[in-house]
Each structure stands twice: as C-alpha cells, then as structure tokens.
Amino acid sequence: MYYLLPFRFQQFEDKELLVNEVGDYLFCPQGTVSRIVHREIDSSEEIYQDLTANFFISSSPIPPLMDVLAARLRTKKAFLDDFTSLHIFVLTLRCNQNCSYCQATSQDEQVSGKDMDLNDLLKAVELMFRSPSKHLTMEFQGGEPTVAPHLVRAAVEKAEAMKAISDKEITYILCTNCVNLTEEMLSLCEQHKILISTSLDGPAFLHNLNRGKPDSYEKVTAGIATARERLGASAVSALMTTSERALSYPKEIVDAYREKGFRSIFIRALNPYGLATENHDWESYTQRFILFYKQILEYIIEINKSGEFFVEEFATIILQKILTPFPIGFVDLQSPAGIVNNVVVYNYDGGVYASDESRMLAEACDYTFRLGDITDPYESLFYGEKAQSFAKSWATEAIAGCSDCALQAYCGADPVRNYSTQGNAYGHRPTSLLCKKNKAIIEYILSLLKNRKEEVLPIFTSWIRGRNA
Amino acid sequence: MVSVIVDKTVYADAVISKAVYWESGDFVVCRETEGSIERVSFTLKQGHTADETSVAERFFTRLNDFKLQQIVNDETKDIRTILYVKAFAHNDDFEETAD
User: Fold this and answer.
1) Is the pLDDT of residue A466 over 90?
2) How many angstroms from the chain centroid is the CA of residue A217?
C-alpha cells in the first residue's frame, strides 16, 4: 500500500512523463500512471523506489521528508520573497535607429514630447525605493535612452543619493543600441558600474536590414568594442530578436556572436507589440520559429561538443527549472507571473505599467495594464484594485489548460500576452501561440534529456553553472 | 461532423469538460446529455484544417488521461494543501500552545 503525492503527467514519445509539484521529472513506461493510481506498483519493483525517492508516491500518508519537499517548493517560488525588484525606466521614446520589428513603437530622434518629465523621473526613483526588495535592478530603456543622457544621469544620481541612506543595493542596466555611446555616457557607466545590454541581430547584412540603416552593424559593433574596452567584457551583453528574415540564418547568427567574442546568445522570438504586430502571420512565424530554435540549439550543442563553451540562454533558464531546485529571474516564465510581482515600468508618459509589454500596448492607446500615475501613492499602484485584478489570471496553477499541464513547473503565466493576442488576460490555451511555442521548446529540451542524456547533460550542466557563476 | 458517445458514469463532467477544452481550438463542440449518456459532436471551425478523422481517438485518449489526473488531484488535495501551508505560512502561525 502506498499513498499518492501531487503530480501531473503527459504522454511523451514512447513513455509517460511524470512531473511532481517541485518540478522533478521521471520518464516511465506507458501505463505507469494507471498502475500507480490503481495501486498496482509493487514495492519490490525498481520503479517503486524511483517514484518514492522522487516524491510521486509515499509509503505513509505524510511523506517522511515532507519538510524537505515544502522547503524545495518554497525555494522554487523564492522569486516572490522580495516583491518587485526589476524597475524599468522608459526615459524616452525617441530613437536613432529604424528597426522593422520595433516592439516599443520608437519615434524619430528629433520629435518632441516623448521624453520623461524630470519631476516624474525623480518621483519614480522614490517609488522604486519603496519596494521591499533589498536588491533593486534599475533598467533604462527607450526608444534609445542615450539620446536623453541628462535623464540617465539625473536618475542615477538620485538613486545613488537615496541608496546612501538606505540598506539597498542597485544594479544599473543601460539598454542601448550602442550606436551613440558618447564619452559622457561611458564615463557615467564607468563611474556607477552601469551594465550595457545591447542588441545584435547577427551578421552585418541581417542586422542592417532589420535596423533600416546601412551602417548600423558597423556602429553597433564599434560601440560594443568601445564599451568592452572601458567597462570590461563582462559588463556588455547582447540580445537578438528573431525577425522573420532571421529565421533562415540560424548558424550565421550564432557565428556572428562567436566572432564578436560573445560566449552566449539569447534566442528571443518576436513579441506581438508595436511595429512588430504589422509584420507577420503569427501562426506561420511561430511554426518557423520553433524549427529555427531547434536548429540553433542543435548547432550550439555541436559547438560545445567540439570543446568551445557557448550558451543558449533561453534553454538555460528552462534547464535551471528542470534540473535545479532554484528559482529563475526571468519574468516571462514565472507563476505567479512577473508583472507587478517582479517587474514594473515607469514610462515617459508619466504612467506606471505592469510590465514592458504593458507600456507597449499603451502606444496603441490601450491602457489596460496601466497601474496609475507616477505621482500616485505607492500602495495604490502596487496593491491597488488594478494590480489585484491581474491576480485572477497570473498563476498557471489556477488557469484552464495550465492547471493540469505536465509542463506547468517549467512554464509561466503571461496575462499581458494573452490579452494582446487573444483579447483577454485569462487566455485560451488551445489557440495560444505562446503556449504552443513554450510547449514545443520545453518538450524538445526534455526529449534531448530523455534520448541523448549522456551527450547533452554535461553541456547543459555547464550552462547552468556558467549562468550561476 | 464527428460524434462520440460518452458514458457519464465512467467519465465525470469535469473530465469531459477538460477534454472538450483542448479540442475547442479547431472544433465547435456540442454536448447533449440523455440520462447517463452524453453525445459530444465536433464540427471543424471555418478556415481550420485539423484532421477530423482523428478527433475521436484523440478525445478518448484525453478523457482517459484527464480521468487519471482527476484521481491524482482528488486523492492529493489535502496533502497538497499541507505542502503549501508548510512551504509558505509563517512558522510563528503554527507554534504549539501549552494546552
């Protein structure tokens, strides 16, 4: 006789995949769940030991290691402990590039009325310091924040002054295209250890086509080199966004990153916001992206097998969820969702938004995820009725299609995406392209662990160690 | 249109609803109940190209899987609650009193 513990399952190739409440997984012969439920597993069987050791069944009503399981569950959800830690400041919507896939609806560098008011900015920094989190990340975005250097400086100086009389630590991140890193900006970055997060789309022809500027690649890579020289190589990271034309060049994109000295790449799909909404058949794009992602991952695995350490960051986040007891800091794959709980945006328009994507919706005059004004009290913004209303759809444990999904522990809720693509924050999983994409990638990674474990596990483990180092 | 007959004494309403949910992307699903029997009809939505012939087999696979999942959920409801309380409640809330 044994007792069941909470778990979910699905058919997986020639096996059944079982995943427990803290994300431990087992591949079992087909029919195993039926045998478990009908108490047909004998304690002399090897699988009985596996199921017991991995918290799928227990010999007693309360498992002897219940406290260990509870501690692991708490650790998995530890990203909630500090509440909002990532504070994004959209200083301006002005930009010096013209990207075809721009999700932020950036405007020409010369337009007026698209910068954040200085008083709003200073007030927003004060709001950030109301966060209970001791470790704050202050991220400057745009548009292109370097076209408003006075605002970057004012924000950092205000934050430094407040930090001096608080017990908080701040990590600064400047999200810039690196096209116009002036001496003033580099000096500020050097002085306050501001990290650079830039964007590189791959080889020159692809990058320039995406950016709508013939010399963008040359300027961006020169900017990256300058920033590395001044701030150190580890202070500069790059992201790529997979435009539709990028889907044909998986190897070329990875090689472009390697050639520029990067040891990792974050393969990001396009998000349906801003200009990007006009450019694509999303059903077709998603199918092609999944294929593209698998091709890239295979290529990167081959690179690692040849002895070169090179990481795919999105896979690493999922692997950390599958293979470790630790939480991740990636707001798109969390439950409860990252909005408000982990991230908030202070926008150039004086509004406070639940996430970066929320402010992108506002550019289409949709203010559904606007929490209020920067001048509003902290409590009404972060604990008000609007924030509370988001909670109805921000936990995978509680929404249709996710609550019984075997992959739940590895995925996350995204009410803003549901709203923007499906018309409501709750969403409909059978027609959700985000669900389709996440499932396909998570299943692919699990398939690699199932069928090619000896080959891929040492590589995947090195990625996780590298990320946590 | 494809129709299947489901015995409600074998599959609970919640189980049928979950299986129907996952077919609702491609199909308009109609449920008609007569006593303990439910007729579930699937009509392909306009513009969709899913394989209509495989829907019955897939639907019963889902029914069986969701039925097993429901048993696991029902049997582990209390232990799951205890697990979440132990994980997230403050220890101070559970201090034993002298009496």
Assistant:
1) no
2) 25
With 0-12 / 13-18 / 19 or more C-beta atoms within 10 angstroms meaning exposed / middle / buried, residue A261 is exposed
pLDDT tens-digit readout, A106-163: 778 778 889 999 999 999 999 999 999 999 999 999 889 999 999 999 999 999 999 9
- Put simply, the answer to whether A430 touches B23 (Cβ < 8 Å) is yes
Homologous superfamily (CATH) of A81-280 is Aldolase class I (3.20.20.70)
**Residue of B59, B69, B70, B73 to mutate, interface with A, max A Cβ within 10 Å:** B69
In angstroms, the CA A399 to CA A432 distance is 13
What CATH number corresponds to the domain at position B63?
Answer: 3.30.70
Enumerate the β-bridge partners of residue A272: none
Kindly state whether A34 is in contact with chain B, defined as any CB-CB distance less than 8 angstroms: yes
Encoding tokens for residue A190? 């050097």
| Cβ–Cβ below 8 Å for A73 and B83 | yes
- The structural domains of chain A, with segments of one domain joined by +, span 3-76, 81-280
Q: Provide the residue range defining the domain that includes B46.
A: 2-93
Interface test with B, best of A33, A35, A56, A67 (most B CBs within 10 A): A33
Name the pTM for this structure. 0.93
